[in-house]
Write a structure and sequence with these properties.
alpha+beta; Alpha-Beta Plaits; five-stranded mixed beta sheet; four-stranded antiparallel beta sheet; 11 helices; 17 strands; globular
Length: about 400
């Protein structure tokens, strides 16, 4: 499933949750996610509202009293002790770690020492985990978004009166497309910016797609522009020849003087920063030195950020950039029931009535561990369930 986030004015965590619910996520599904956090009393209230005559869903998190200042380690402990699937824990932690890095940079401290203040409150944990789990439940595999709108003015926060956009929001937006809007007041919160810059795969105008559902999430404040987030769910439309054509960038560099111990974490960092794919190729360089060629495939708007990461975290002095086209099959997700539990599978039609079927690795790995069986057995069960 392809998701497109239209941002007329901005985004916050509860606005995104409202849009996800409005687009079709069952309310009981969201509450089950909150229950899995094992935080007594954590729930939500969803109300139908209008913003400038546009119907939308407003979500208010109901959370028990708790200390407002939390460290990243406190949030990690909550998530890791929860009953959430590992993939939801990991994705949610990625959002919080990115947020912690931005806050630490703004306040001149370390990630371990940073206080999250309002952002560390339980309602923000609910917003982030709810959004991650909501996209997962809706089988969204690609998220596209409009450039982030930046308003102006001031906002009162835990550190006093701050300029808008707040410093943490600007830190989070570095390397991502933004646009200015003539609105006074905070329209993008740190939580909203962290969700966008962690979860969104590509940026720009709405992609060519068949729209199946539209959800609209409302903020609390009223502005001249409707204070809503619009979520479009659907399938990408294939170009002639039964495939999608995407302009991409391929970054390459040769490394012959870098410790192999650094290479594994580098791939994880590149993927976390937005690379679509990355790989190593063994090569020989001058003076018959064994080396690796590092290749990074990315969307056009991510290449500068990824190039900077390569210069920062490798020994390279130069990066080649190639403009390429990728022809890829449109794909969608389905969930099948197996003897090992529900498994998501990715489907792509390469000819009329002819399908490529690929069970999701993380689902299969988790099921294999829970049932003490092999990945191959779970894969075979998922494919068989789909075919029958």
């Amino acid at each position: 499933m392809l998701a497109y986030l239209d941002l007329p004015i901005g985004i916050s965590g509860n606005m995104l949750l409202g849009a996800i619910l409005d687009a079709g996520l069952p309310a009981e599904n969201l509450q089950a996610t909150f229950d899995a956090l094992q935080i007594s009393g954590l729930s939500f209230v969803a109300n139908a509202v209008t913003k400038n005559s546009i119907a939308a869903t407003h979500v208010e998190i109901v959370a028990p009293d708790q200390k407002q200042h939390q460290h990243l380690a406190d949030i990690e402990a909550i998530l890791q002790s929860s009953d959430l699937p590992t993939r939801i824990q990991d994705r949610s932690l990625s959002v919080f770690r990115r947020l912690a890095q931005a806050e630490a940079r703004v306040h001149g401290t370390t990630v371990e020492q940073v206080h999250f203040h309002e952002v560390g409150a339980l309602d923000a944990i609910a917003d982030i985990v709810g959004a991650v789990a909501g996209f997962d439940a809706l089988d969204v595999d690609t998220i596209h978004a409009a450039p982030i709108p930046l308003s102006h003015g001031t906002v009162r926060a835990a550190h006093g009166l701050l300029p808008v956009p707040p410093p943490a929001v600007l830190a989070l937006c570095e390397g991502f497309p933004t646009r200015g809007i003539d609105i006074e007041g905070e329209t993008v919160t740190p939580t909203g910016a962290a969700l966008l810059t962690t979860l969104v795969d590509t940026w720009g105008p709405a992609p060519t797609m068949n729209i199946h559902h539209v959800g609209q999430g409302a903020g609390t404040k009223d502005f001249p522009i409707p204070n809503i987030v619009r979520l479009l769910l659907g399938e990408p439309i294939a170009a002639p020849g039964h495939g999608l054509v995407e302009p991409l960038a391929l970054l390459e560099t040769n490394l012959d003087d870098m410790s192999p111990e650094w290479l594994g974490p580098l791939l994880d960092d590149l993927l976390q920063a937005g690379a679509l794919d990355t790989w190593f190729t063994p090569i020989f360089m001058k003076k018959n030195r064994p080396a690796v060629q590092l290749s990074v495939l990315c969307a056009l708007d991510r290449q500068e950020k990824l190039r900077t990461l390569l210069f920062t975290h490798t020994t390279t002095l130069g990066v080649r950039t190639l403009s390429i086209e990728r022809h890829c099959l449109p794909r969608r997700f389905e969930r099948v029931e197996t003897a090992y539990g529900p498994i998501r599978i990715k489907l792509a039609e390469y000819a009329p009535g002819q399908w490529k079927v690929a069970p999701e690795y993380e689902d299969c790995r988790q099921a294999a561990q829970q049932h003490d069986t092999s990945l191959g057995e779970v894969y075979a069960a998922a494919v068989s369930a789909w075919r029958t």
